[in-house]
Fold this sequence. Notes:
alpha+beta; 2 domains; six-stranded antiparallel β-sheet; two-stranded antiparallel ribbon; 3 helices; globular; signal
Amino acid sequence: MPVRPTRLTAAAVAGLALAVIGPMGAQAHTTVEQELAATKSALNKYKDEYRAVADGYLPTDECAESPAGVMGYHYAKPELIDRELDPMTPEVLVYQPDGYGGRKLVAAEYYYVDADQDVTTDEDRPSLFGQPFDGPDPGQAPGLPVNYTLHVWFWQDNPDGLFSAWNPAGSCAV
């Protein structure tokens, strides 16, 4: 005789799932989702790239791309390039061409300076939103320190994942 799902069966399965995940696991997952949503909401003001520039983010003229995908134009706030992290104030904002001669906000990049400036050690690897940063990597331009980075694709879908450095769905095409 086939087993037919009932409300009791569904409740038992849900209860088992909570027992396996545990109340703290479910709560921690929700907390990260809430933190991501709050951060995205706070950063939505930078959809206007002129607002970002007015707030001290300096635009670049190079759209970063590689065989792995695209990042875009990096707008860095120099005074934030340090060893402190604040989810609501990313060190870098990432834009891509919007197809109309402007740029659209696609991601936030968090940038953390490596303590010993040695790419072979990583004892001070930071994490944010439950994600470890990439790196350590050499400075991306002359004068920049060895660092860790974390990209968060708040405003553009990334098939490689929300925290992937490169986005194969992005474009530098003007």
